[in-house]
């Protein structure tokens, strides 16, 4: 029997589980959203945070599991006047005494809560985190609380005072806490809630696990009073030698000197900030070695401004679209890729560490890939850093997935913020080749209006990279000779630079052999990336190529697809679904899926399936010709 993936541990005995689920489901329906109630400081984002001096707050945090949001609302469902569970110890005056972080259990940070405790496996709700830390205040220094990701809605207090609020589960944010931290002992409380909502991004339904919690690094970052909070250092479009940069200095409006230095190239440029705290600089050299998958050359770039001294590792390359071609450094490139979820290999749960990144991108490399689609949301920054070093091109995506509340301005604002945060974090990564704004969204006027705005945001924030989205296609009725035609006709295509397309011939659509009589047409003179195709196989399950769930069936899909894909004249890349099996609450076939989407070329335990080798053979061959 299957239990619905409800918000309480479904490993409870059946009757108890169902009763709790229905009570809890009712309460969820009546709970007003904290998001509406809590308005706090708008968090900023420190670019290149991973190269700054920081004090790690990773480790064991005390937690209170709070399914009824008791720490936030009183019994009349009013926000508590006497404070939330924001204090390390209950108030000595007797307010809110029914909690005590110091006596509560702990969870590891970073880490989703679902994979750390059986009772939290299906949990969707609130957990309060608490951490004590020592701090030495330094003069002329600003202090930021850096949260790599908190899924989904989070609120932070330092020493009982509000630091910031953030919505969106996959992007980093920084709250300034300079005036909240003090000398000696301090404590930090973070509320994290991962309930899915209709107006959220993503919304109610996804095909991946809604891992909750502080899923990435948490640290304190110290900067000078006037410091560099954002910059772009990139090769000029169409050039092989000219680097254009702008640098933004926080607290540095008007006349702050800025220096940009690439010592390996003997290049230095100086300028000073304008009234908006921004300085533009140009550098040029004939000696520049451009970044590419074959030679992922990175240069150490130094930025000096207002007492701040930042270093970054940056690769220089151009990426453009010309007709049906994608040009890397001015030359057509074919993107031999694979899609990846941020699922941790072997141990399960949300991927976040260096080892996870090395395993996932290492497998992609072994497959012969020069490209990965990091689906369906921003992955840990370690992935794009490593992709930079390995020479792996990246499709980077925000979780505008399936259905979204297209007419809701708050939803648009939220998606826009997530996209901005992603671009801000990764715009100086040579590996990132494409911004993707949506996956399999319906063809409606409201969705078109929403996504046009998001595309504009992507272009404004970063005019240097093509914008894409994974679309669905129309299949025309069979021709008399049996040929079927699929047409890329989604009106969104007009606004994109590169078309993405997801298709599942052989899995959701007919048998694998159907691919052999399928032809492709496009209404647009643009490059196409087949951003998904594939089918499920349970690693180690063998049978006839016609038998679903076997490795042979999946292998057959790949063979048939490859033959079809080779015939598409405007195809410029692929990211089949998917590198590794990943957890999904929608996939509950016992003995086969067991809450895993099994379309991986590799199992979650690292076992390569037969299809891996079929794709590898093609990729390694075409690596020679491309
Ligand atoms: C899709 C979705 C992806 C799913 C996949 C599947 O089209 O984009 O998120 O996981 O299909 O396996 O059904």
Structure description:
The chain has 626 residues and is an alpha/beta fold. The chain is 18% helix and 30% strand. It contains 8 helices and 35 strands. It binds (2S,3S,4S,5R)-3,4,5-trihydroxy-6-oxo-oxane-2-carboxylic acid (GCB). The site of (2S,3S,4S,5R)-3,4,5-trihydroxy-6-oxo-oxane-2-carboxylic acid has 9 residues, from loops.
How would you sum up this structure in a few lines?
The protein has 626 residues and is of the alpha/beta class. Helix content is 18%, strand content 30%.
Mean pLDDT comes to: 92
Low-confidence stretches: 1-41
Could you give the count of β-strands? Answer: 35
List each distinct ligand once. (2S,3S,4S,5R)-3,4,5-trihydroxy-6-oxo-oxane-2-carboxylic acid
Strand proportion, as a percent range, falls in: 25-35%
Q: Biggest β-sheet, characterized?
A: 8 strands, parallel, barrel
- What's the multimeric state? single chain
Helix content: 10-25%
What is the SS-derived class? alpha/beta
User: Over the alpha carbons, how many angstroms does the gyration radius reach?
Assistant: 25 Å
Going across the major beta sheet, what is the strand order? Answer: 23-24-25-26-27-30-32-33
Count of DSSP H/I helices: 8
Q: What is the terminal separation in angstroms?
A: 51 Å
Shape: globular
Record keyword descriptors for this entry.
626 residues, alpha/beta, eight-stranded parallel beta barrel, 8 helices, globular
């Amino acid at each position: 029997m299957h239990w619905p993936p409800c918000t309480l541990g479904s490993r409870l005995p059946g009757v108890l589980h169902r009763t709790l689920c229905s009570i809890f489901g009712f309460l969820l329906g009546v709970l007003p959203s904290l998001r509406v109630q809590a308005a706090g400081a708008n968090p900023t984002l420190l670019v290149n945070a991973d190269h700054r001096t920081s004090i790690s707050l990773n480790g064991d945090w005390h937690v209170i599991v709070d399914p009824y949001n008791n720490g936030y609302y009183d019994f009349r469902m009013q926000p508590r006047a006497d404070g939330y569970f924001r204090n390390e110890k209950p108030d000595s005056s007797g307010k809110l005494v029914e909690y005590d972080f110091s006596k509560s259990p702990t969870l590891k940070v970073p880490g989703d809560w679902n994979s750390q405790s059986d009772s939290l496996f299906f949990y969707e709700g609130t957990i309060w985190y608490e951490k004590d830390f020592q701090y030495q205040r330094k003069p002329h220094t600003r202090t930021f609380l850096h949260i790599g990701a908190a899924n989904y809605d989070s609120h932070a207090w330092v020493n009982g005072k509000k630091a910031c609020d953030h919505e969106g589960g996959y992007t980093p944010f920084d709250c300034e806490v300079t005036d909240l931290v003090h000398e000696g002992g301090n404590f930090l409380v973070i509320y994290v809630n991962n309930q899915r909502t209709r107006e959220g991004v993503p919304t109610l339904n996804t095909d991946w696990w809604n891992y909750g919690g502080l899923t990435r690094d948490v640290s304190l970052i110290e900067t000078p009073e006037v410091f560099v909070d954002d910059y772009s250092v990139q090769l000029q479009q169409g050039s092989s030698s000219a680097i254009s940069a702008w640098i933004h200095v926080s607290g540095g409006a008007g006349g702050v000197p800025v220096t940009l230095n690439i010592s390996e190239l003997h290049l230095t440029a100086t300028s000073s900030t304008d009234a908006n705290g921004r300085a533009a600089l140009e550098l040029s050299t004939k000696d520049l070695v451009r970044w590419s998958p074959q030679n992922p050359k990175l240069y150490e770039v130094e930025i000096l401004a207002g007492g701040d001294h930042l270093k970054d590792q940056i690769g220089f390359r151009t990426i453009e679209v010309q007709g049906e071609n994608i040009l890397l450094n001015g030359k057509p490139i074919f993107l031999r890729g694979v899609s990846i979820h941020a699922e941790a290999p072997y141990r399960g749960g949300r991927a976040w560490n260096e080892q996870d990144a090395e395993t996932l991108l290492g497998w992609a490399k072994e497959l012969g890939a020069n490209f990965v689609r990091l689906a369906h949301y921003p992955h840990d920054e370690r992935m794009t850093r490593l992709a930079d070093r390995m020479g792996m091109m990246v499709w980077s995506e925000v979780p505008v997935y399936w259905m979204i509340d297209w007419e809701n301005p708050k939803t648009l604002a939220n998606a826009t913020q997530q996209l901005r945060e992603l671009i801000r974090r990764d715009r100086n990564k040579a590996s990132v080749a494409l911004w993707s704004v949506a996956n399999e969204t319906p063809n409606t006027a409201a969705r078109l209006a929403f996504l046009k705005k998001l595309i504009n945001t992507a272009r404004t924030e970063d005019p240097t990279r093509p914008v894409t989205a994974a679309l669905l296609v129309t299949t025309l009725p069979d021709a008399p000779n049996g040929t079927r035609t699929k047409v890329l006709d989604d009106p969104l295509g007009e606004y994109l630079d590169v078309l993405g397309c997801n298709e599942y011939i052989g899995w959701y659509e007919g048998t694998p052999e159907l691919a052999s009589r399928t032809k492709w047409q496009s209404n647009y003179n643009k490059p196409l990336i087949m951003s998904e195709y594939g089918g499920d196989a349970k690693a180690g399950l063998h049978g006839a190529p016609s038998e679903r769930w076997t490795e042979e069936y999946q292998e057959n899909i790949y063979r048939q697809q490859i033959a079809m894909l080779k015939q598409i004249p405007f195809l410029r890349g692929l990211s089949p679904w998917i590198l590794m099996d990943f957890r999904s609450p929608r996939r509950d076939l016992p003995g086969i899926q067991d809450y895993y989407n099994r379309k991986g070329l590799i199992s979650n335990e690292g076992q390569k399936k037969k299809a891996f080798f079929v794709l590898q053979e093609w990729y390694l061959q075409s690596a020679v010709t491309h």
